[in-house]
Structure formats: C-alpha cells, structure tokens
Amino acid sequence: QSYCHRLQHDMYFLTSTSRLNEQVVDKIVLQLNRVYPQILTNEEAEKFRNPKALLHTRLSDLLKHLQKKGDRHCQEFYRALQINAEQLFNDLPSRKILKTPDPTEIDTDKEQYMLNDRGPVFFLACFSVAAGLALFWYCCNSEKQVIGGARRILGFSPIIIGRHVRNICMLYLEDMSRN
C-alpha cells in the first residue's frame, strides 16, 4: 500500500478534533520544510503555519497538498508525524491494518477481552448445559437399567439443572422406560 493511499485512509482520523494540536502541526510543517529533499517550499510552509487560518483547514490543506505531490512527500509526512507525535502515529488506522498481515486473522487483544468479560457464572452455565446434554445423550443410547439410575440422579438434582429442564428430562426418561 502506497503512502498516498495510507494518508487518504488516515485523513479523517488526523483531521478529527483534538488529535493534533497547533504546536505539533507547526513542528511537522517545519520539519517538512527543512528536510532533504525539501518537501515544502518556504511559501508553502508559511501558508500551512498561518495562525489566522483554522487548524483543521490548514491540516486538511497540507494533507491534500502532500497527496498531490506524490508518495515520497507522504512518506516524509509519516516520518515527521512519527518523530513529533509517536503515540498518534502508532494509533493510526493504517498502522493497525499493517500490524495484522491477514485481514481474516483474529485480533487477539480484542478476542481476549471478548472472552474474559463474561465471568465464572457464564462458564458454569455453559459447563452445566454441556454436562446435562452429555448425561441426556448417555441415557438415550443405553439400556433400561441405566435409565432407571439416571432417573434417580435427575430426580435428586434440582440444584444442578433448572426445574424446567429437569421436568423435560424426566418426561423423556419416562417415555423411554415405557418403550
């Protein structure tokens, strides 16, 4: 992905309110004016550092100007941004895309949060359902002697599984014992 495309992708993020303050934008413009090869001429640098214009407007104009100039100019902007606002540089949307080489790959930080926010009650509920289904399956595929034992276990387990589930299991076991 070229730097111009990345800059186009990051433009909204950079120009949104309170991302870049006036001092950081001035430092970036000065650096682009002073590096070799000179990215911004003195007139362009003065235009983008004009305190009379709104910061949002100056920054938008600067980014559009750099995109018109080409990939090398956009690359130098990213270098200046990294030097002057490293935290913001690391939070850019295009940087996050570059960090995950496969778009189908799971973001482990997000997935870890999603798995850990449920707590132990959720785990116990899932485990109880799985154990109940395993017991139910075992009862369905076994002989009548085992069904009677399972019926006794289910009869004394109102705490382990809910009443409605227990009643359904009991009715099923009674039907199985009649057949």
UniProtKB/TrEMBL annotation:
Disulfide bond listed as a keyword? yes
**Entry-linked Gene3D superfamilies:** Death Domain, Fas
An example of a Gene Ontology cellular component annotation for this protein is:
endoplasmic reticulum membrane
Q: Does the keyword Endoplasmic reticulum apply?
A: yes
Localisation = Endoplasmic reticulum membrane; Mitochondrion membrane
Look up and give the organism this protein is from: Certhia familiaris (Eurasian treecreeper)
State the source organism's domain of life. Answer: Eukaryota
Q: Which UniProt keywords apply?
A: Disulfide bond, Endoplasmic reticulum, Membrane, Mitochondrion, Transmembrane, Transmembrane helix
Q: What GO terms in the biological process aspect are recorded for it?
A: regulation of apoptotic process
Entry-linked PANTHER family:
CASPASE RECRUITMENT DOMAIN-CONTAINING PROTEIN 19
Which InterPro entries does its entry note?
Answer: CARD, CARD19, CARD_BinCARD, DEATH-like_dom_sf
**What's the protein name?**
Caspase recruitment domain-containing protein 19
Pfam families registered for this protein in UniProt: CARD
The way this protein sits in the membrane is described as: Single-pass membrane protein
Q: Which sequence ranges are marked TM in the entry? A: 120-138
List residues of the CARD domain: 38-96
By its UniProt entry, which CDD domains does this protein fall under?
CARD_BinCARD_like (cd13785)
Report quaternary structure and partners: Associates with BCL10 by CARD-CARD interaction.
